[in-house]
Amino acid sequence: MTPVVLASKSPSRQAILRAAGVPFEVAASGVDEDAVKARLLGAGQGPREIADHLAEAKAVAVSKAMPGAIVVGADQTLDLGGELYDKVETMSEGRARLRTLRSRSHLLHSAVVVAQHGMPIWRYLESPRLVMRAASDAFIDAYLTRHGEALLGSVGVYQLENDGAQLFDEIDGDYFAILGLPLLPLLALLRDKGALAA
């Protein structure tokens, strides 16, 4: 079977593929995501386009070094009222992020691009909408205390895989896309390309 390479060191994306029974290896893309975001924002691109561009950049960069492999690049951006929100670096910033999101609706643009022989051959983008409830400061603080710095790996500073689900009133979209990798369309593509048994 054609080897599959995940161009991401994201523990969440690795866990999704592993749980789905996809054999894969991991290769860091080396893409300077901050520089790409700055360039795209300067060109007037929005959060949705940025997720797609970053997923492609990661997939293509690794595919050039591993041309025969099917390389999966993925990215996710948080869109609050059309504004791009990046990951936070500290727990105090995480607390502020959750307070900003509460009682509001936001989008998570989850893009996946597959490349082979240094060229993108397939792409998919889904934008789940999440409505955070009016959680109290005490609930937010307790949530952050329970899960600590592991939450900083998520742009929204929450994880639906755990009791972060209690932060929400409404979720409209695919669960796997919310976790950062639209899985079912990707599995169909991998079967089509002979990387998974049909």
Word description of this protein:
It is a single chain. A hairpin with a 2-residue loop joins strand 5 (105-116) and strand 6. The longest helix has 19 residues, at 47-65. The chain has one domain (4-192): Maf protein (Alpha-Beta Complex), CATH 3.90.950. The protein starts with a strand and ends in a 6-residue tail after the last helix. The chain is an alpha+beta fold. It is globular, with a radius of gyration of 17 Å. The protein contains 7 helices and 8 strands, in the order E-H-E-H-H-E-E-H-E-E-E-H-E-H-H. Helix 2 (33-42) packs across helix 3 and helix 4 (91-101) packs across helix 5 (137-147). It has helices at residues 11-19, 33-42, 47-65, 91-101, 137-147, 175-179, 183-192; strands spanning 4-6, 25-26, 70-80, 83-85, 105-116, 119-126, 129-132, 168-172. The relative contact order is 0.18. Strands 1, 2, 3, 4, 5, 6, 7 and 8 form an 8-stranded mixed sheet that branches. The model has no long low-confidence stretch (mean pLDDT 95).
Task: Give a short summary of the structure.
The protein is an alpha+beta fold and 198 residues long. Helix content is 38%, strand content 24%.
Features of this protein?
alpha+beta, Maf protein, 8 strands
Present the secondary structure layout.
Blueprint lengths: L3 E3 L4 H9 L5 E2 L6 H10 L4 H19 L4 E11 L2 E3 L5 H11 L3 E12 L2 E8 L2 E4 L4 H11 L20 E5 L2 H5 L3 H10 L6
Parallel strand pairs: 1-2, 1-3
Antiparallel strand pairs: 3-4, 3-5, 5-6, 5-7, 7-8
Helix pairs in contact: 2-3, 4-5
